[in-house]
């Protein structure tokens, strides 16, 4: 039995209003004493007793609208104009008459199931009013399901008005609602009824939270594309005008993002009105509105006619670029890129460049930072001629700006600026007008500026060529390699391949390799770690002979570093080197020096030997692993330190797949059995883990085919697993017995391998590890079939 609770958010009007009830929020919501509704097999709802009601019919009405649904022909007493009380009474009468009244007894009812169609929406309303924000959020995310259940007509006439009048919730709920409504066009009847989605989104576009407004604007932009031109002017453009002339700044900021989507399909008269509204927003008294208008200025300019851009957009850009708020001026710089792409060179020089020069020298560092950050885009937009005459001097000023943030942003754009210069005379321009300022930045006092420059300066070598790189850039590279800031050194190291392509490996080794070796022995372990990560790259560039001569000893020294992260990285580095130089090189150069460490007095170094063997075994192959590495591992099983012993067990488990079965049975098995009886609990644990893996490797069980993999005979019942079977109808019996037999055999083999007594009867033999794959198959199969028979 469902109960109806009156919502406290209402008041009764006095004289002159007929004593009617006006609601400030939805007038009622349902809380159900029954279980949550479940769908039946044909789309109906399951009653608590298990009976299924017919699917929802679109002809019935549900009073959802606040103030407009219950008493305005949409509510439970549709067609009679019932007030709120009469509507509720009608609802109760329908409930009482269910199953006895015939069709037409109550307007809007349809026989005995008249009130059952209210269940989904009743649950939705109940969750929307729940104190738990997560429940309300979940109900909003189910709106598409509710709309499908209601049908397009009831979604338009009841659900959307209800949502429009209940936009007073937490920001995350409103954000989800704005996102859902953007994909609601198909649920309200298609593009012909897309305008029904505008009222709730219009309300969401006026809320205070910026994220919600932005999502509402995004949904509105998406829906605008589904409007026909007539519907756009009849419904969408009026919405934009209302938002643009709203009292609160929130609606006006939202309107700025909608002009560009409705302007292209509007008529000439409407276009003039749209441009007028945008002009008024660009000169709004509120800085937030002017910021929003400035951020959309370039986007709006792209959809305007060229004459309108010159006559209206450029003056707006000039005014915004000289606004008293620097947050507005910096957004005008971003719009300059879009405007510059639309104008000719003459118009650019006359209309845009004076404002851009002013922005590059703005008193606010934020505006200058934006100019530096957008410099590459500006350079492409204005063309090579204006770049040489105006942008290069402006860029020089940005490189020597008094603010470090501006210098760092400009330094990031050095490479892109040089690449975009015209090919003819580019080298001369860089050497005479850019490089002198770069040399000053190499010794800048701010580490962020030096780091930004180091990330791009190596790329100049491919532009300037070999001679200029050796003469002018190499000294800068060396200075940055010796910089006290680790980030500067790392950025240089990470881009060495650019220089190698230009000057060659010999020149690189003579000039930069000593500095790299010095960094490899740096006191800061993160610097050493970065060098290790780039060592395979350097090795590939240097070649085997040069690597063995200069860097091999360095790589081996990292294996005994006092920082574990360095030792681990050095181990992985050896594996990559073996993959690059081959197993023969590893056998002659790396493996002997690694195995010598097994006798090191420091147990950490002995453990490093095991880690290296783990990494090298797969790369070196079975022969080298069995002949050279395995004896060392087996010998270390008698180490005095427990950490070494249990790492021996882990190593044997790791290299087991590489070894042949004879080595596993004759050499590995006795050692693991001995470790399995070790006095240290950790050693015993890892030994047992290794025993399980190696035993599986020795036996290699054949997995039985799954039931689903059986070839189906013609006319076979493909749904045989979905129904109960008789005692003699069990096609999976053979597979289950095979799985149980294999699991039992494995348990026996495991016991033999561990050296334990196997003559303990069938109970012991049938005891299997539940984590085993075969046992899992057997358990799942038995549970499945026992449930089927029940």
Automatic annotation (TrEMBL):
Biased composition (Basic and acidic residues): 717-739
DNA repair keyword on record: no
Source organism superkingdom: Eukaryota
Every TOG domain range: 341-572
Start-end of each HEAT repeat: 120-158, 197-235, 274-312, 313-351, 352-390, 391-428, 434-472, 473-511, 512-550, 590-628, 629-667, 668-706
Family: Belongs to the phosphatase 2A regulatory subunit A family.
Descriptive protein name: TOG domain-containing protein
Source organism (scientific name): Felis catus (Cat)
Organism ancestry: Eukaryota, Metazoa, Chordata, Craniata, Vertebrata
